[in-house]
Amino acid sequence: xxxxxxxxxxxxxxxxxxxxxxxxxxxxxxxxxxxxxxxxxxxxxxxxxxxxxxxxxxxxxxxxxxxxxxxxxxxxxxxxxxxxxxxxxxxxxxxxxxxxxxxxxxxxxxxxxxxxxxxxxxxxxxxxxxxxxxxxxxxxxxxxxxxxxxxxxxxxxxxxxxxxxxxxxxxxxxxxxxxxxxxxxxxxxxxxxxxxxxxxxxxxxxxxxxxxxxxxxxxxxxxxxxxxxxxxxxxxxxxxxxxxxxxxxxxxxxxxxxxxxxxxxxxxxxxxxxxxxxxxxxxxxxxxxxxxxxxxxxxxxxxxxxxxxxxxxxxxxxxxxxxxxxxxxxxxxxxxxxxxxxxxxxxxxxxxxxxxxxxxxxxxxxxxxxxxxxxxxxxxxxxxxxxxxxxxxxxxxxxxxxxxxxxxxxxxxxxxxxxxxx
Amino acid sequence: xxxxxxxxxxxxxxxxxxxxxxxxxxxxxxxxxxxxxxxxxxxxxxxxxxxxxxxxxxxxxxxxxxxxxxxxxxxxxxxxxxxxxxxxxxxxxxxxxxxxxxxxxxxxxxxxxxxxxxxxxxxxxxxxxxxxxxxxxxxxxxxxxxxxxxxxxxxxxxxxxxxxxxxxxxxxxxxxxxxxxxxxxxxxxxxxxxxxxxxxxxxxxxxxxxxxxxxxxxxxxxxxxxxxxxxxxxxxxxxxxxxxxxxxxxxxxxxxxxxxxxxxxxxxxxxxxxxxxxxxxxxxxxxxxxxxxxxxxxxxxxxxxxxxxxxxxxxxxxxxxxxx
Lengths: 422, 324
Description:
heterodimer; A: alpha/beta; four-stranded mixed β-sheet; 15 strands; globular; B: mainly alpha; MetI-like fold; 2 strands; disordered N terminus
């Protein structure tokens, strides 16, 4: 039966008010003076349980250098992370330092919720890829210390390729090679599909759009790119695997069973996916996989690059300590700890070796080499609304309820309307 | 899900109304109104509950009503906008479909009532230790986490590898994609809802059945009435207060259906557009689109509809509910 959402939400609001009142009292007392010498406890908000051990190690390393500062790593599952953070930010109680994503930086920095890092003494963004620095720069000031980056690769199942007698993907593959291979690999009798092509944007569609020479958003970030024929060519390529070649499970099938799960269980031979699923595929029983660069489209090679950053909450009572911690998070030492965990590629350039070697059975260097033609993940000042609306429309197109051409018109008009609202 | 029902469900209400002695007790409490020292203790006793209700229910309801006339900034700060939220909600193109889904779901949920009565009657026939075992089994879904329940059902409903379609394939039926085909989603969700509410309803009906005096049946037997006649002439009329109570709760719960949509269907689902409920629209506005004022307007409209429906149900009960 339905949950009492109409009751729980006002109750939550009420609770938030109480919490705000209570913490308002305590932080007023603990405020400014204690930063210099007295003990300080920083809260560090993260959402990935796989990365918690590495974050904890970094926190301990930092505590050794700064004995008067304690770092409390606070894990909130991704599903609740942003809802909780937004409520906390509204009531002035967000963590002192927390993870930020490219899709939210425009909103959080634009609404004055973050401290500009580039104003702090000792700020240095040279070790990080310029594309990441640019995403986290809003109004000429950089608000995020890049933490990691991710690119997309073509994951493939070696066993299924061997069984079908198809050569493994290489750095010279084009769209046509992927189409041909997917047809040879598909075997309805064995319940095997050549490829999984869901309407996921970062893992699939955005890459296809840029490989086709199209655009998701204009350079001035004011208008949608779905009116461009090249953008549509990218979407068409991805959709054809389902509708034309029938070498991908349908949208319904991929709703019922997640495509990464289909790939991990040997039902799908190829899947374009980010480096973040490395450990999932490493640990999948019976899976013998590897990864190759994404294929070249009509306009050449492209992959979307995205990555997280560490930011400081504007209303933190411990701004000086928080900056010390964020500076450390951006240091070589912290990035080496991250690299050794094998969970993500550290943003600090030149330190990816540790990450690449952490899982030697995959050619993880692929993801680092793809930096050469990486395109920044498309965002705007308030990315949330159009990302939600676009996904709902793409779901309709992929589900066969809307043609691609009619869908593209709706994508253009709704996205432009969302962008106009800012 | 049914979990959330617990605080708002005064399970003793039909029983209290149906039995004589407690009603007399009520009269006696009323007579003591003249002695301040006595009744002040009564109010002190209920003070914690009333304070809790005021803080966590009444005050938030008042706030929600106020906020429904405002728009919110992403990080707080309200602006008065009058009726704009209500106008936007009532002209939302998604509303008719969502309203229909909500009504259909609530009607389907009422099917749980006959099932629960049969279950309660069967359990009442059982004697010995097994009763506890069965009662626990049927009650388990009520105390299980709704999210976990939804995940298990999502797996059962899987179009390609789910248990349900596997069983159907054994008898030569090619099952549909239950949770990703909009033609089936509302029914698939209703099955989960009915399954989850059986245990709770069963407990209430079980209590109702126990409250029916045995001598009615003995008298009916002497008069030559069979089992079926006894059920329809004695059990059902005397169970009607419980049926009324459960149907009111079912309608209230059904119209607020939300968690199964989110947890079992998921957010990237081609069937989602055709399967949304009113409460899901509320969730989208508040948690995805940062339109808290709009969400409050939806909540207020939903509350008004629920109040009217419940009032109508209370009016109609005079026609079919028999208090002993």
